[in-house]
Amino acid sequence: MALARSSDQGELRAAIEGLLRTWVDLDRQADNAARASREQAHRVARQLVGLRQPGLSGLADEVTGIGTLMSADVTRKLAEVRAPYVAEVHQLLGLLAPLHGVASVPPLAWSSAAVADLAGAFPAGFARDYVADLVKSVERSVTLELEAAGRVVSQPDVDGVMVALGSGFSDAHRAEGVALLRDAICHAVQRHGPQISDDAQLARLIWLKDPSGQNSWQITSNESVQTGHRCGVVCGGFTSSAALAKPIEALLEVAHERAGDLATFLSRNAGLSSSIGVHVSAQLARLEPGDASGYHGAGTGTRETRRDWVKARAFGLAEGRATVYGVAYDPIATGTDPGATLVFKKSGNDWRMVTCYPVGEPKPTDARLEDLT
Amino acid sequence: MIAMSQTFKAFFSGGFGQVDYEPDLYVEAVEEVLKTLADDETGGYQVLRDEFAAHIRESSFPPSSSLDSQWTTDEWLRDVWYDAFGPEPPPGDPYPVPTEHWGHLRQTDYMIYAVKDTPEHSSPGAAAWLERRGLTFGEVRAGVLRPAAECINVRPAPEGWFERLHDLVERGLREEQPGER
After folding, report:
1. Which of A112, A65, A262, A235 is nearest to A173 (CA)?
2. Are B148 and A8 an interchain contact pair (Cβ–Cβ within 8 Å)?
């Protein structure tokens, strides 16, 4: 590929992922074709055997044999078709490797295109892991075309959600919980509220379109996207006002019980820091599967692949075409240590909540609610 | 330094650790550093900064997941340090990043999320951030879009890296992580 050497990280990642996705598609079609020819032969053979005519049983075996040969032929052809894909992706991975702290990618083995699984065609280590991570999520991942993202309606009016929020809290914590969420510094409802549709979440992740409409977003005359919004490699939120209230209610309950009030509780635990991120486990928050939904970037298993993904997204924004994919997930149902992250910032002697979002697992530095004193 | 102190965790979790989930909070945390250092009459922030340096020096900030290594985690922490405090490496860093790499051959999350082609499209704090680091909008954008083959974002782990980790474990300065033997 002539452009490869001059490609930036994002363009490389988009090219690698595009090739692998085409390849998976091709594989599936060839597989179907091979299976169809085998099944067809079996069907004919069964009919021949069913005739119970003397001399025909040998023919039935022969027909089955032809079917098997045909599928073997498709598989062999596939290996031939694969070879240039493998070579291409291998070359591009070689260019990406230094950005992953990997000095070089070992050469391809001569028979590598003939192995059964796609990742196995690549040398062990960085290249194989990279392909495996991408291929793993191909089947489950989706993207959104720019045109569809353009049609997603932003909802600047979150008042309805704000009103409904109250019902999720106990009488003891309702006023305080709603006040935290209504604070101008807080964007929990605007970015993680139940009013945000799946498409709006996806438009946020893939096209950086602010679901609340506060940040600017437009398609320019040369088909690129200008945005004032930021989003990481994950987006999503709570599926109901009651679910959003749950982790906040749990934190307020503990804060009041242990320290009398929220500010004292957070000041005591944050020590010298003027901000703190708290992990409230699903168990403590009573969050259940179905309470949260969202998308995480496809093929983002390491810090470096997350950077690849973010830069491929930026490349897509500049080009006006979808280059990255997201996998729909319910962090509460699928996470290894699920819950919600609540971030607070100190202002003066007061603490204000900045955000509250569901997660599959806490980050290493998050404070766990049960450990706070 | 073996375990992260509770106050360091709080300091990191509220902003520096948020880039994958809430990049806005990361950008804010980076831009607030100057003011926080200036207002730091009690020296509390300096204590947090010293602990941050110790975790880089002693590889005692654990990887986020089993797929990340201690080396790539440390390389990321050097990026966060640069974003927060500038090109002066953390005190005692055994593998300091050459100053001239920053913004040219090596990109940080702040450069990617907060610095765009023009000041109008960038974060309000970007101009000041760049000026303090001797960089321009154009240089950083050219760096972000530089051909991958020329970038040195994450260096390969140096010779003797595992021996160093084992030694730090033996001296009680860090906990061993999976996959280091």
Report:
1. A262
2. yes
